[in-house]
Specification:
Layout lengths: L29 H9 L37 H24 L5 H33 L8
Helix pairs in contact: 1-3, 2-3
Length: 145
């Protein structure tokens, strides 16, 4: 009896994936890249802002010409922001039920306004960090013909 044919003739773990560009060589370390992204400045040079408005990304960095607009940061930032914020919210809910604190309607309203504000800030920070990670990896959006 012979061995079954190997379906994986080619290496399944090729980096960068076919159709993407190689990672940028002049990028800082991972920690610096992510930190700059969360501060909403260019992950490569830290001299120009990433965003042109609340979540609209500049096509390229005005200082170092990094392709910020080519990074496909579509769905990951909201999930990251929700993951982080909902863990803090769950902690507050546990404290409310554990210690029997019964906030008034005004306190609930203030907490809701604060939660919306924190979510908006966290979404912007998560999108900046995601753009930094994608820029470090060299993963760009596909151009459709």
């Amino acid at each position: 009896m012979s061995a079954p044919p190997n379906r994986f003739i080619e290496a399944p773990d090729i980096w960068p994936p076919p159709g993407t560009s190689a990672p940028e060589t002049n990028m800082p370390s991972w920690g610096t890249t992510i930190w700059r992204g969360t501060r909403c400045i260019c992950p490569r040079c830290a001299k120009a802002p990433i965003f042109n408005g609340y979540l609209k990304v500049h096509p390229v960095c005005s200082s170092c010409d990094a392709p910020l607009g080519d990074m496909p940061a579509d769905d990951a930032p909201p999930y990251i922001a929700m993951f982080v914020i909902l863990h803090f919210l769950a902690f507050i809910v546990v404290l409310i039920f554990r210690y029997g604190w019964q906030p008034s309607a005004y306190e609930y309203g203030a907490m809701l306004v604060a939660l919306v504000g924190v979510c908006m800030v966290a979404l912007r920070m998560a999108k900046g960090a995601t753009i930094g990670i994608l820029l470090k990896l060299g993963l760009k959006r596909e151009v459709l013909n």
